[in-house]
Amino acid sequence: MKAMILAAGRGKRMQPLTNLTPKPLLKVAGKPLIEHIIEKLVDAGITEIVINHAWLGDQLENSLGDGSRWGVKIDYSPEPEGGLETAGGIIKALPLLGRDPFWVINGDIFIDADLRDLPTELASGDLAHLMLVENPEHNPKGDFALKDGRVSEKKPEDDGYTFAGIGLYSPELFADYAAGFRPLKPLLVHAMSKQQVSACVLKGRWTDVGTPARLSQLNQEVEDKQ
Questions:
Q1: What is the pLDDT of residues 140-195, one digit of tens each?
Q2: What does the alpha-carbon distance between residue 193 and residue 191 come to, in Å, rounded to a whole number?
């Protein structure tokens, strides 16, 4: 099965740490974030990984190589300076991802959850399956509503969950959209309106490593746990 790691972001909120280093190569417990993700995907049975990049992408390719050290095949999907946003990056990489559903995971998150139970297929008629998490401090209201395994756009009165940046997508989700700069949320919301998106809650530690303070705190927590 294939997966895509999103690694094209500029990481402006992580400056100055990302001035000379792409965010996915920032280290947690002495190891780049993206290597932690690759190991989780390999444990989950992923055999082929596509990584997009824009800012300092050569560093990612030089650091990770062809994936042979993890027993997987890594292909790269370069993007223009500034990147193409999430959906735009996925659309550009579709020729590398094939015709079957594929996992996409943000390259700037840290998880210690076991991903071996991730589904490999979508329910009939579904275009996406999302992993959600309990709302962190920096996103207290959440992103989406979840009821009976179905996810929808959150209304003010709904209890929300935060999108974990991990999803299983059918290529058909992107079929009607042109290449170019394009965020993912509008595509998901459109599919949700047609009852084509399922979701479940991810258990275990999950951190959106979006600021230097969060990275420092995460490193301290992981160090204390070891």
A1: 999 999 999 999 998 888 889 999 999 999 999 999 999 999 999 999 999 999 99
A2: 5
Give 3-state DSSP helix, strand, coil % of the chain, rounded to 5: 30, 25, 40
Q: Residue type for 137, please?
A: E
Report how far residue 44's alpha carbon sits from residue 114's, in angstroms, rounded to the nearest whole number.
8
- pLDDT tens-place string over residues 83-135: 999 999 999 999 999 999 999 999 999 998 889 888 999 999 999 999 999 99
198: which residues sit within 8 A by CB, 6+ positions away?
122, 123, 126, 128, 129, 130, 149, 150, 151
The secondary structure of 148-198 as a DSSP string is TTEEEEPPTTS-EEEEEEEEEE-GGGGTTS-SSS--SHHHHHHHHHTT-EE
Scanning the structure block, which residue is given the tokens 């920096």?
Answer: 138
0.90 cut: is pTM over it? Answer: yes
Contact (CB, 8 A) for 73 and 48:
yes
